[in-house]
Automatic annotation (TrEMBL):
The protein's name in its UniProt record: Probable transaldolase
Entry function: Transaldolase is important for the balance of metabolites in the pentose-phosphate pathway.
Gene name tied to this protein: tal
UniProt KW keywords: Cytoplasm, Pentose shunt, Schiff base, Transferase
Family assignment from sequence similarity: Belongs to the transaldolase family. Type 3B subfamily.
Classification via SUPFAM superfamilies: Aldolase (SSF51569)
Lineage: Bacteria, Pseudomonadati, Bacteroidota, Flavobacteriia, Flavobacteriales
Length: 217
């Protein structure tokens, strides 16, 4: 299972990278704005900084909503750095652009996916990754994890290569449940990764080991 961090915050990305378990980064326009990164030049420069911190895939989202605009933007993003994956919204133009990029060998991440039908379309269009947003489904009292399980079943039925990237992950239980279901990737905040470290018996056990070591020395 790949671990992506869902942020544009460089220090969080550095911390996850330093832990040695990070496989990539996902961003979106809201996450960029949260870090105060605005304007095309600054956004492109920020993607480069992120690519220089991590070794894996970095999803960079287009903001165009028409096919021609998506192609223009996506080609510029892909040319920016070999680690960039072009992130496209699940709308008709996004599916068309996904097929275009897939035919050209440019990697894609189809985002804002909330149903099995949308995930099926993304796979048919040759998406590298599909991003079902589990947290946002949970927010409206719909089982986000069930969507991951249904997409897993459909993709396995037909051996689609598209990787399921569980997005809008909010906490450690989302990560663990996605792993049980067989999601290929998860993307979440730093806390969803570092939270996996924690167990009170680890802390008390270590404290006792260190105490006993001191007694013997
Ligand atoms: C996916 O790539 C999105 O950036 C993200 O996971 C959205 O998560 P949110 O629902 O916490 O905003």
């Amino acid at each position: 299972m790949k671990f992506f961090i869902d942020t544009a915050n460089l220090s969080d990305i550095e911390e996850a990278q330093a832990l040695g378990v990070l496989d990539g980064v996902t961003t979106n326009p809201s996450l960029m704005a949260k870090e105060g990164i605005t304007g095309e030049t600054n956004i492109l420069a920020h993607y480069k900084k992120i690519c220089n911190i991590v070794e894996g895939d970095v999803s960079a989202e287009v903001i165009s909503t028409d096919f021609e605009g998506m192609v223009k933007e996506g080609e510029a993003l892909a040319a920016l750095h070999p680690q960039i994956v072009v992130k496209l919204p699940m709308i008709a133009a996004g599916v068309k652009a996904c097929k275009y990029f897939s035919d050209k060998g440019i990697r894609t991440n189809v985002t804002l996916v909330f149903s099995v039908g949308q995930a099926l379309l993304a796979a048919k269009a040759g998406a590298t990754y599909v991003s079902p947003f589990i947290g946002r489904l949970d927010d409206i009292s719909t089982d986000g994890l069930n969507l991951i399980a249904e997409i897993r079943q459909v993709y396995d039925n037909y051996a689609f290569d598209t990787q399921i990237l569980a997005a809008s992950v909010r906490h450690t239980m989302h990560v663990i449940d996605c792993a049980k279901i067989g999601s290929d990737v998860m993307t979440g905040p730093l806390s969803s990764i570092t939270g996996l470290l924690k167990h009170p018996l680890t802390d008390s056990g270590l404290a006792k080991f260190l105490e006993d070591y001191k007694k013997g020395n």
